[in-house]
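Sat 14:20. Reprocessing the chain from the morning session after the first attempt stalled halfway. Input below, unchanged.
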Amino acid sequence: MAHTCRWGILATGASPLLELFPQGPGSPARTPEAPRFAPPRTGWISTKFVLDLLADPSTRDVSDVRHEVVAVGSRSRESAAKFVESVWKEAGVTEGQDKVKTHGSYDELFADANVDCIYVGSPHSHHYAHVHAALSAGKNVLCEKSLVVNAAQADALIQLARAKDLFLMEAVWTRFQPYSYKLQEVVRSGVIGQVKAVQAELCADFTSQSDEHRLRNPYLAGGALLDLGLALVLLPPSEASSEPLPVPKVAASVLKTTTGVDESVIAGLTFKQSDGRLVHGSLTTAQDRQTAPNRCSYIQGTQGYIEVAFPTYRPRAFTYYGWDQPEDFSAHASGDSSKKPTRTETFEFDERPGGIWGFAWEADEVARCLRDAKKESERMPLRESLLMMQVFDEIRRQGEFVFPEELETLELQ
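Finished this time. Tokens:
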């Protein structure tokens, strides 16, 4: 019989912090009596996540787990009810809608005994407070990427989850898509030799958006890096462990928007492997331009390379090219057309089986972990979430980019 995971959804609504946006760089914070920006509506990503939960798992060849949305919490019961009504309408289903309990506060949601796991899809600025509150209330948590805004907050939440003996995972959906499993299988097979470098780019043009948009607003922890910069997931996952991963060397260049958040980031990363080898990573992410459709992410080895087709966040295909001898690969790369690859294969994937957006696979992972009494995912271990925040902290340090103090602190507002 399939294991059922009962979900509680945190539906973003107004909050006191969201009403204190600045007029612009260097300007004083506004008072709640004179708001400039409207608080965000219930998020797009939370809506798509729930739509995926409502999809029939069999359409993606999943039979061992299933999902049930049992509760939604917002800052008013009316807002929670509107969220449920709109999502079920968009899904084109009625079954189960009347069974969803709507809560008029997040604390009520966290106290709901019928909930197995809380999904947090609020703005980055609120992840730390929301996840901390859910864990403190004894709830397992799946939190959208990025987990928080800095490494200190990530470490605090990881320690809290372990102290409470609860499950916690960062929702890096790319890591759970079928292409990702196959990609890492191919890398580990050795068909391209030892990995020498990884190159990834994800840029999206948000220049038409106003300064209140979440990617441009510093008080929502805006910027391209936290939202688009999780390229480290192209690397094979490490094992789940409480031991920290070594932080790579970072050399970064950061350009900022007029609101002070990062607009464009180019970073070089040097990873030291357990056998002493060094692997280079190149990360490009930006919100002022679009990645060209013919751009690929690359994984280069000593005997070949892999092209991962656009878009980076949900690739539809990848192709590997391998040579028997490293010198033949080098000769081909230098222009010798006679040194053709001795092995090559393209793998294509149905990016949206059953009409899902792609979040269902990470939800399936959570359900399996809870079924098996695991406190973290072996596929997306907590130490990788901590590592990514350490890398991002260093990129921001080099770019002289900090968020408002109330977002960077460990103190709860």
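The chain has eleven helices and 14 strands.
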